[in-house]
Amino acid sequence: MTDLVSISATGLPGRFALAGVLSPADIHLARLLCRGCGESDERVELAAALTCRQVRLGSVQMDPTEIAAQITRQMLDPAVVASAGPEELAAIEVFRSLDWPDPTDWLARLEDSPAVAHRDSPVNRRGLRLDSGLVYLERYWQAEQQVALLTARLAADRPEISPATAQAALDTVAAALDGAGIVLDPAQAQAALRVCDRRLSVLAGGPGTGKTTAVCAVLAVLKAADPGLGPISLAAPSGKAAARLRDAVAEVGALLPPEVGPGPLEATTVHALLGSMGPGRGFRHDRNDPLPCSLVVIDETSMLSLPMTARLLEAVGPGTRVLLVGDPGQLVSVDAGSVLADVVASAPHLGPDVLPVTTLTRNHRSGGAIAELSEAVRRGRTDEVIRVLDAGDESVRFVAEDPAALSLADLPDVHAEITSLASRMTRLAGEQDDAGALELVDEHRLLCAHRQGPYGVSRWSEEMAAAERAGRASTDPSERARTRGEWSIGQPVIVNQNMRQLEVNNGDCGVVVAERPVPMVALPSPGGTSRRLPCSLVGSLRPLEALTVHKAQGSQFGRVTVVLPPPESPLLTRELLYTAITRARRRLVLVGTRESVVRAVSQTSRRQSGLTRRWRELGDLHQIPDTP
């Protein structure tokens, strides 16, 4: 990276690159944004590069008055400095000597720059925009404006369903659910009424709080209150999450009488819902061609980026309702933005007229140590987290050691779990019991924060592969002669791209069930059945070994092993730990030092956005302006 930096950066931005603050891509894009407008001032180029850095790390804005202190906290964090090698220490010394621009002078220079548009300037004339003292890339400024305006406009629009009609529909649905043994709690009932009353509503809650039941109640109540209700669309950011939403809604809906239940519904990815025309080519549905449905339900909304949320809301036509569902404590999107977390955090201060949010808090599942641990993490209660981990409950095991110094053999219960599952899947696949083999695929996952290195997916996947081969060999001795690149009967696999023509989703997991005449994989089908496809036909099929926590988001597993990164890792946040823990249904093994656990609980994902400020401004207006 140093060679690339020395070639691409000089002067003030170059010093920041040598200090490890900026990447070559940050500097290259900043230079394009500035030079294309005739701007050569290094301070403006530095501001552009730092804004690119912010977006790369998930924030959508750069505050010139705060950025120096923010990056200093990150770079000179004692845990980071203590673990630094010679190259990192050299970069830290360069960082200590950096000469940051004076914030007042910096802002004045940005105000006068030909490369920077102002708040009221026309759109798409400049690559940078200065709004309320904050620097944005134009694309993200527009997305933030659109999300704020469109959510406010939708929330302010009241459909024509009277409160009496909505309450009567709720009473009918609640009675039907009660007959099926499901009692709606007050928050779930409020969510159903709110969707009748608003075109936009948000349903937030952690695992086990009854979000799926509430969604089914919403669908049934809306159907009863509005007999002319048109098509309903269910979607989620990932194919796996969409499939889980479809199956969960169908499971609860099947308990209701046909005249009350939502009926059979399909679910798709948000990209497919909007009619993605391919990378960089936009979407078929937009403000000129809105979605042809009466209600859109989006699950796992925490995974939606700011630009994707803007595209979704832009495609909502007149009369269409939107229900956003998710857990604000989970990991946010890979791309910039944290829309669901911003909405839920802002709602209490702005009121339901601006942001209609219903938060579910009652846990409808049996409690236990996993639920207790996840709640303590979500609330940031470090002492309580350590207490639960040290309690010795059979459902939560804490291996308080550095994972870099361990192998899978040092975790005998996890090793035995992996080999046993591999042996059982091999036997079932060999007996042509595809359904039985598939039932075991989601029994265990090993999750990491990092992709590479001693704490990462690549290293722990190798450990898992060896254990799985040993398990398969105990059932099929011919396994010992295979190389890792060959498909084996009973081998679990994962799909890494959506293939709509085959009804295969990114994240779908299956089992190799035949080798001849060609290797075949069994994959789940809607309704709990399975089907076989040639391995060669399924794009990006790879062995299912260790996964990142991000990749596992939207799924749950019987037992989960979590490998925590070291305390200095920037990925180690409360949201990561909470998401990892809540992937486990029955048993959790957490591998990491106490320092890593404490660091994770105390360090939240700090993504900077201006949504709260924009909603507050809009709340003071009597009329919502047009979107840019």
UniProtKB/TrEMBL annotation:
Enzyme Commission code: 5.6.2.3
Domain RecBCD enzyme subunit RecD N-terminal span(s) in chain numbering: 19-134
Source organism, top-level taxon: Bacteria
Keywords noted in UniProt: ATP-binding, DNA damage, DNA repair, DNA-binding, Exonuclease, Helicase, Hydrolase, Isomerase, Nuclease, Nucleotide-binding
Domain UvrD-like helicase C-terminal residue range list: 545-591
Pfam family, one: AAA_30
Protein name: RecBCD enzyme subunit RecD
Origin species: Acidipropionibacterium jensenii
Encoding gene, per UniProt annotation: recD
